[in-house]
Amino acid sequence: MNMSARTAVTAQTTTNKGGTFRNLPEMMSHGELRLLPLIIVLMVVWMVMQYLTGGLFLSARNLTNLSGQVAITALLTSGAVLIMIPGFIDLSLGATVAAAAVIAAMAGAQFELALWQTIVVTLGFGLVIGLWHAFWIAWMKVPSFIVTLGSLLAIRGLSLVITNAETISPSPDILVISDTSLSAMLSIVVLMAFWLAFALLQLREWRARMQAGIKSSFFSVVGIPVVSVGIFACGVMVVAVSYRGLPLPVVFVLAVVALTGWLLRYTAFGRRLYAIGGNRQAALLAGINIRAHVSIVFAFMGLLYGLAGLVLVARLDSAPPGAMQGLELNVIAAAVIGGTSLMGGRGTVAGAVIGAILMESLSNGMSLMNLPSAYQSITVGLVLLFAVYADMRGRGGRFGD
């Protein structure tokens, strides 16, 4: 049964049984509210971290710092969802972002390029890597695991070679990316526009379901999601206005999340990605150009490499060639925690971004508690293990299936 049919059955079952609140657990596990448990877990983690850090975690200063950490992971997680839904994976994330940061630093400091030229060069570098991956995966039929693993090793080595294993200092101009924040009024406008657009899209989805004869609860499709996002937007607004305003990297994240979420939920391109991941042979027989779709998502991921590299070098004010080791595991864990399947065919950008916030919140909280980085690695490993287990259980999979 495909995803649309499963959603329809779930919605019909819920309506037939009667009582939205009575069937809330079922909707949380299989229906429209499947992200609600993840949001509850995130809130619990925040409360625990607030207690363990003596009130530091939820301070405006730390939440602004956390947003900088989340920005890079969330940008890449949004792209990773587009790659994982059709059944592929990218292990080169950390190495490629570090290399993009090196390119950005060298372009500004050593070649004295203007800021806009540095941005173009860095995004172009990421795009080339994305197209390189697309060539081997989509056209040469080499498994994405092998291609991106090879890139991880090769690009990490390339970064060390071109920098002589030394950290590169960027041009001061690039720091505008991390130092710029929107004014209080503009921050409010951006967040309210994001929330309003989300509310309108949820209302459109509910109306489309009703017109298609799929009985869905307004409460579950529109009510709870819109209220939840509104509460989150208000919280971000309060923090942004009370401190420096909405940081520019967060604006990048909102734009990328809006774009990728819209592509997946409301375009034929997104539906075809789900079809490819659900049954690649059936998608091919249905006339879907798998090569073109795979090439596009890896090219888009390449642009995100460059954007994340720009945010990284601006945030660190340096470009260490060995930076971001293990980033790919954090991104994959965030996506899987958010409901994206390693087997393909299932996932949402919203869930993946919530997973990214959860992962970075754990890391940030443990840093405030002065725990060694080894404990953070242990936490990421265990979270990834349990997330994959939950994904397999959700699919009804068993060992050896």
Automatic annotation (TrEMBL):
Example of a GO cellular component annotation carried by this entry: plasma membrane
Keywords noted in UniProt: Cell inner membrane, Cell membrane, Membrane, Sugar transport, Transmembrane, Transmembrane helix, Transport
Ranges in coiled-coil conformation: none
Transmembrane region(s): 35-60, 66-84, 91-109, 115-135, 142-162, 182-201, 221-243, 249-269, 290-312, 332-359, 371-390
Membrane topology category: Multi-pass membrane protein
UniProt keyword annotation of Magnesium present: no
Protein's cellular compartments: Cell membrane
Classification via InterPro entries: ABC_transp_permease
Protein name: Xylose transport system permease protein XylH
Organism the protein comes from: Rhizobium lentis
